[in-house]
Design goal:
Elements: E1 30-34, H1 41-49, E2 67-72, H2 76-85, E3 89-91, E4 94-99, H3 114-122, E5 126-132, H4 148-184, H5 187-208, H6 212-221, E6 234-240, H7 243-246, H8 255-264, E7 269-272, H9 274-281, H10 285-294, H11 301-312, E8 315-321, E9 325-332, H12 337-344, H13 346-350, E10 352-359, H14 360-366, H15 369-374, E11 379-381, E12 391-397
Parallel strand pairs: 1-4, 1-5, 3-9, 5-6, 6-7
Antiparallel strand pairs: 2-4, 8-9, 10-11, 10-12
């Protein structure tokens, strides 16, 4: 598991160092690590995935091709379930993180690695904006000034410009699409195109003025879909502070962190020290525990990032559990049980009959399946059941 979490309940998890091809279809969502050059993106990615594939060097565009890595999602319930079931193996669910080249001003016009950067971001579900909040004369800043909010605004301006290009292209096609719909007599298509055109007419001026918050609200609240937009993606904000500032919450006095809190709100800012996370990832458990104690921290920044990203993606976990393995699976909030079964195997969804379900908290309390049955906590659910976070399931199917 590589130091992303030092909770005792998770220390039995197997090490996972997975090289993931870009063409893989990630059902649980992808998280991109985005920022200006030299803000700590690749260092953070390396710590998350325990690989040396993303070179963390002190110059812009060190990361050229996006690096991908799958990272286990910490969940202490899984280890407890495995212990109760006598499982030989523990398999946590995972998130896919992508380290993307640093963005510079002018990216929308192709400056630096702009076009490639923007196309890579388009394929992800959540953006982690890594913003530099540390001073270090040995690590150059692309504009020789540490300004996390200014860096964020530069990135969002480029995303707005790219989205404006996408909206303009879509608007240029609307007349012909509407004509085709009228000729075919499709009332629903005409209605949908009219609603989309109205949406684009509101989105475009917001993009032109750089009001990315308005764009996000318009797209999120819309009842109709349109072209995918970068500014409509969910985001979290990572304050990368120095080692000294991370110790004992000293970052509270960091003016750059304070500027982020003022701009984004305290609940949306995650504090890390990429350098500390990198060091912890390379230590054994005893060394890491000693270092964390000396720094007065009880949970690493990476653990917070993973858990918050998982939650922000709208994901929950259900479990399958037996003597062979205890396995966590990811589904979106609101997923019905046949579709959840399909994440295990497509045959389970296709031939779904029912599922025997109980909640992990009930097993943790009652200890055995026999006790669950006696207490009426084990139930049979049909196709309309919506899976809850923490459900343990045995799927019945026939194909």
């Amino acid at each position: 598991y590589g130091g992303c979490d030092r909770d005792p309940a998770l220390q039995k998890w197997p090490a996972m160092r997975i090289k993931v091809p870009q063409e893989t279809n990630f059902k649980s969502g992808m998280v991109s690590i985005v920022g200006r050059p030299n803000v700590g993106k690749s260092t953070l990615f390396n710590a998350l995935t325990e690989t040396a594939q993303a070179a963390a060097e002190n110059y812009p565009f060190c990361t050229i091709e996006p690096n991908l890595g799958q990272v286990p999602v910490p969940d202490e319930r899984l280890a407890t379930l495995a212990g109760l079931a006598g499982s030989k193996e523990i398999i946590p669910t995972q998130l896919t993180f992508v380290d993307i080249a640093g963005l510079v001003k002018g990216a929308a016009q192709g400056e630096g690695l702009g076009n490639q950067f923007l196309s890579n971001v388009m394929g992800v579900d959540l953006i982690l904006h890594v913003l530099r909040c540390f001073e270090d004369s040995d690590i150059t800043h692309v504009h020789n000034k540490v300004d996390p909010v200014g860096d964020f605004d530069t990135i969002m301006t480029e995303l707005c410009l790219k989205d404006l290009e996408s909206v303009e292209k879509r608007q240029s096609k609307m007349a012909s699409l509407m004509k085709k719909a009228k000729n075919s007599g499709s009332t629903q298509e005409i209605k949908d195109l009219t609603a989309e055109e109205e949406l684009l007419n509101k989105v475009r001026p917001a993009l032109e003025s750089g009001d990315y918050n308005a764009v996000y609200t318009l797209i999120t609240d819309a009842s109709i879909a349109t072209v995918p937009l970068l500014t409509a993606k969910k985001g979290l904000y990572i304050a990368n502070v120095s080692e000294d500032d991370f110790s004992g919450n000293a970052y509270e006095d960091n003016p750059h962190y304070q500027a982020m809190v003022s701009h984004f709100g305290r609940d949306k800012v995650i504090v890390v020290s990429a350098k500390i996370e990198s060091e912890l990832a390379q230590m054994d458990e005893a060394e890491a525990a000693e270092m964390m104690e000396s720094l007065e921290i009880n949970q690493t920044g990476l653990t917070t990032i993973i858990k918050r990203a998982y939650q922000h993606l709208g994901l929950i976990s259900f479990f399958t559990c037996g003597p062979k393995e205890a396995h966590a699976w990811s589904v979106r909030v609101g997923t019905k049980v046949p579709q959840a079964a399909g994440t295990i195997h497509s045959d389970m969804e296709r031939g779904f009959i029912c599922a025997e379900v109980y909640h992990c908290d009930d097993l943790i309390e009652l200890k055995t399946e026999a006790a669950l049955k006696g207490a009426g906590k084990l139930r049979t659910e049909g196709k309309e059941y919506i899976v809850a976070d923490g459900d343990v399931m045995l799927v019945r199917f026939n194909v």
